[in-house]
Specification:
Layout: E1 2-7, H1 22-28, E2 41-45, E3 51-54, H2 60-66, E4 83-87, H3 93-96, E5 108-113, H4 114-122, E6 134-139, E7 145-148, E8 151-157, E9 182-188, E10 194-198, H5 206-212, E11 217-221, H6 229-232, H7 240-243, H8 254-258, E12 265-269, H9 283-290, E13 293-295, E14 301-303
Parallel strand pairs: 3-4, 4-5, 5-6, 10-11, 11-12, 12-13
Antiparallel strand pairs: 1-2, 1-14, 2-3, 7-8, 8-9, 9-10
This protein binds zinc ion (ZN).
C-alpha cells in the first residue's frame, strides 16, 4: 500500500495566513529548519494508479500539483483524475473545503458519516459537486466499505468535538454524537496489512487503545505539543482539550498514552502552526524522536 502525506499541518497550515509567531516567521523566511506544511490530508493507493484521499484540505489544488501521482496521466483522456474516492473524517473546514477543488463534473465517490453528509447538504456551495458524477455514500460506523478496489476502510468514532463553526454557544456541553469525528482503519485487502489515520482525537479511551494495539502504523493527531500551547503563545483562549485534540506531551498526552500499545510505527500529523515540533531543530522535535515517534511532512511517502 502506498500512503502519501499530502499535508502535515493542522487547519490554517504552516505558516498560517494571519499567524505571526516565531515559528511562522521562520517558515515565511524559507528557513530550511522550519519547512512550510500544507493542511492535513493523506492519499492512499494499492496500485499507485487510483488514489483515495482521506480528507480534502483547502490546499488540495497545491497538493495535487506537488504530487505527480495525483495528476492526470499525460497519455490519459482530456479530462481525467487518478483520484477515485474521498473519505472525510469530520466536517472541519480544513477537511472539507478542498472538495470545492474537485468540481468540474469529474466522477468520484465521496464517503462520510450521515452527520458529515448533513453538513455538506446544508451548505449549498457543495452542490458544485455535480451529483451526476459525484456519488455521496454514507459510512456506517464500524461497517467496512471499499472506497476503491483493493482498499477496505472501517470508520470508528473517536472522542472529538463538532466543527468550530457548528458550535452552539447556548449549549454548555460540547460533547459530540457518534459520527462527528471518526478515525479510519485502512486495509490493503490483498495483504491484510492495515494502518490507522486519526488526525483529530480528544483522548485515548480504552476502546481506542484496544483497537490500536499492535498496529503496524498509526498516523495520529499531533495538533499541539502542550495542551495550553495556544494560550501561552497568546494566540488563543482554548486548550487543546477544548478544541478536541489531545496534546503530544504530558501525562494524558499521546506519547504517554501509546507507550504500551505496541504500535510499530507512529507518526504525528495535523500539527498546528504553534507546535514547536514543526521546527526540525527544536528540543520538542528531538523529544518526539527520542520517544520513537516521527513527524509527518508534506510529500512523505510510506509503503506498507
Ligand atoms: Zn483539522
Amino acid at each position: 500500500m502506498h500512503i502519501l502525506i499530502l499535508g502535515a499541518a493542522a487547519g490554517g497550515g504552516f505558516p498560517q495566513w494571519n499567524a505571526n509567531n516565531a515559528n511562522c516567521q521562520r517558515a515565511r523566511d524559507g528557513d530550511p529548519k522550519a519547512p512550510a506544511q500544507t493542511q492535513s490530508s493523506i492519499a492512499v493507493s494499492v496500485d499507485g494508479a487510483m488514489w483515495c484521499l482521506c480528507n480534502a484540505s483547502p490546499d488540495l489544488r497545491q497538493q495535487i500539483e506537488a504530487n505527480r501521482q495525483l495528476q492526470p496521466r499525460p497519455d490519459g483522456p482530456l479530462r481525467a483524475s487518478p483520484i477515485g474516492a474521498v473519505v472525510l473524517t469530520n466536517g472541519d473546514i480544513d477537511h472539507i473545503a478542498g472538495l470545492l477543488n474537485l468540481r468540474e463534473s469529474q466522477a468520484f465517490s465521496l464517503f462520510a458519516t450521515a452527520r458529515v453528509h448533513g453538513i455538506l447538504r446544508a451548505n449549498s456551495v457543495f452542490n458544485a459537486l455535480n451529483p451526476e458524477f459525484v456519488a455521496r455514500r454514507e459510512i456506517d460506523l464500524s461497517t467496512p466499505f471499499k472506497p476503491l478496489p483493493g482498499i477496505q476502510i472501517t470508520a470508528f468514532s473517536v472522542p472529538g468535538k463538532v466543527a468550530l463553526y457548528l458550535e452552539d454557544p447556548s449549549q454548555k456541553d460540547l460533547g459530540t454524537s457518534d459520527g462527528d469525528t471518526v478515525g479510519l482503519e485502512i486495509m490493503n485487502i490483498a495483504t491484510g496489512r492495515k494502518f490507522f489515520y486519526i488526525p483529530g482525537c480528544a483522548e485515548m479511551t480504552p476502546s481506542l487503545a484496544a483497537r490500536l494495539r499492535d498496529a503496524p502504523l498509526v498516523l495520529f493527531d499531533g495538533t499541539l505539543y502542550t495542551d495550553d500551547e495556544m494560550i501561552r503563545a497568546g494566540e488563543g483562549v482554548k486548550t487543546g482539550q477544548r478544541m478536541g485534540h489531545m496534546s503530544i506531551s504530558g501525562p494524558a498526552g499521546s506519547i504517554r498514552s501509546f507507550e504500551r500499545l505496541g504500535v510499530k510505527r507512529r507518526l504525528f500529523i495535523h500539527l498546528n502552526n504553534t507546535n514547536p515540533a514543526l521546527n526540525l531543530d527544536s528540543p520538542e522535535r528531538a523529544a518526539i524522536a527520542a520517544s520513537g515517534w516521527e513527524v509527518a511532512m508534506d510529500g512523505m511517502e510510506i509503503r506498507l
